[in-house]
Give the backbone structure.
Amino acid sequence: MNAEIINIGTELLLGDTVNTHHSFIARELAAFGINTYHQCCVGDNPERIDEAVKLAAGRSDLIITTGGLGPTVDDITKQCVAKAIGKKLVFHQESAKRIEEYFERKGNTFPDTNYNQAYLPQGCIVLNNEYGTAPGCICKGKGLTVIMLPGPPRELIPMWRDSVAPYLEKLSDSVIYSQNVRAFAMSESKADILISDIKTPEGVTIAPYAKNNEILIRVTAKAKNIKLAKKAAEPVAKLVAEKLGDKVYSTGECESLAEKCVKMLCESGKKAATAESCTGGLIAKMITDIPGSSTVFELGEVCYCAEQKNLRLGVPMETIDKFGIVSCQVAEAMAKGVMEKSGADFAIATTGVAGPGGGTPETPVGTVCVAVCGKEFMCSRRLSIKREKDDRDYVRNYSAAYALDMLRRIVDRK
Amino acid sequence: MNAEIINIGTELLLGDTVNTHHSFIARELAAFGINTYHQCCVGDNPERIDEAVKLAAGRSDLIITTGGLGPTVDDITKQCVAKAIGKKLVFHQESAKRIEEYFERKGNTFPDTNYNQAYLPQGCIVLNNEYGTAPGCICKGKGLTVIMLPGPPRELIPMWRDSVAPYLEKLSDSVIYSQNVRAFAMSESKADILISDIKTPEGVTIAPYAKNNEILIRVTAKAKNIKLAKKAAEPVAKLVAEKLGDKVYSTGECESLAEKCVKMLCESGKKAATAESCTGGLIAKMITDIPGSSTVFELGEVCYCAEQKNLRLGVPMETIDKFGIVSCQVAEAMAKGVMEKSGADFAIATTGVAGPGGGTPETPVGTVCVAVCGKEFMCSRRLSIKREKDDRDYVRNYSAAYALDMLRRIVDRK
């Protein structure tokens, strides 16, 4: 089955909104073993929607549209699709009632134009919208299946999960299972070389993706059911992890370094604290992004100036004067300080120059000192994060990830 | 001039990478008054790239391609485009030299396949790649202009800024200038009603966009030069801001609440500090995302448990016991505590239940107390952030933005 995605909406076409529907839907389709060969985006324009639907009908079996299901004259996806599959739009009483109820629940007055949303292609499967007014639908005609979904992600995603995914699951005679091996600070070409001699069994593929500072190796298996697919993928993922070595922080159990750290700390019943200068709360934010982090994280300090490093973390002024504010000695003192004050088992500290200003010949932009300590050891690194151009976000994100990677390794040693 | 964007790359098509090129390029084109009517994405497949280029050639004057300029057999964008415009690919000596030098600079050995990247359509304008090996190009033929750009954003964006933008500027006989009015916590429909009676002069349009917790009203003016466009847009933006009232935090001078706060603090020579519980460093992170924030922000505390709120911020245990850890009283005590300890002029504090766990009947998930104080006043709010389903990120982001909006209003009062 060949699928095509048509994203409809002037705000998407003109770039005012980044098109996240495309990647969401394409990945979901892949998980059901459905190939996607084309994606396109057009504005809220009848001729161009018509043209896109016709073109898709000529080359694909399954069309997924997003957007253009609103109540206004702009919203003409259903008309174009109905024409392409040779169906009429008919009034769907139950959907009209749902729309009325939605307005009632919100306490808003009901504009008559919203009844337009209850017109759907004859004989379609209606997809109820729990989070908005526009119902979606699955309709068939002229050898084509078209799934129409509303544009807002908060409506589209639950509708996909609740209605479209179960429908596709029944259609498909195979499932796809992916397991992601993740490693920090490894280049794609390096990973490519390390895994090049892995022979995969039939139905299993390996693909590397470079993402930010990480490499993700996706091991994908296609099989009749999820159990068989898992059984095929797991040993290959394990082999990939062995080949990549200790830079691997997850063979599928975690989606980020922060999640890995929180998981390891939870499992060992330990706590960590943070003392941040140039990362300015980013590491604490990354840790507390993870649900349940409150059991392993109690204190984070953001000390952006020398005085606060001294007052709040007990970093001696002599250390700052002697080694400079951006030094491993200061990072170590910060880590030690916050660990003592918090009673945590581990602590992370950062001090550096994130830029764009503040660089000097001795400590140019991108110089960051990171320290991680436990009860009986201390480890620190001076990083020179070089980019072709200064990039504050990159420097902050890289050093935060580097610090979490150090923490993961140190917790693991225990 | 009608433009079309063709994004090439299997990783984009299959959704492994979100397509950010489309929105970047579409917005840039709009700024030069160039209309975009179509965007499509295909994988690294010769037939489908050919098909996409031919289709675009039949309906657009300007085609922008991204991706498929790499050194491998997969990378066939140039071949397809050259065929469509009736040109041959020829070896470009200078680009070959640049590629060699790039490898030398990186200290890597040079694979011969990389010479493929130096073959470019005859007579094209070569776009040097400062951050990678694949040169881009602008080529013309059969009434068509095609701009080919490399796939990696860190190569594409600088190439656009350094070479493509100046080229398009010369082509265009008009410029577009946009000014964004931003307001926190206002619905799109409410904004729509408030601005509905504004009459815009010719060449000026108003469009509202709902983004996260904000509404952005974009006032766009098309004119012969930037000075005239600004002159047309500015009074309309001012009028929009007046209509929306005090929820507006920027009429174009800032892109985020955090930037607005940092700017106002800088201008008034004041400092702010943060004490965060449920937002866990997010507010500090948002403030320190802004370059130059070190002059207005020196101390942030993340106190995730009652004990640390007491020890580090001086929140009395009786206050916690009497009113509960999620209470305006505790938030106020946290704000007061961090302001005293930091010597800042203002302080923000948050305490709440971000979820998914931790809710109780009295303080369900989404309950967040926010306090902001200055030297002589204190202000706090108990928020009940309701979503159709629990959403930790949403609760954290909304309460962080709410706190920054309170800070902005309080700094403004001074």
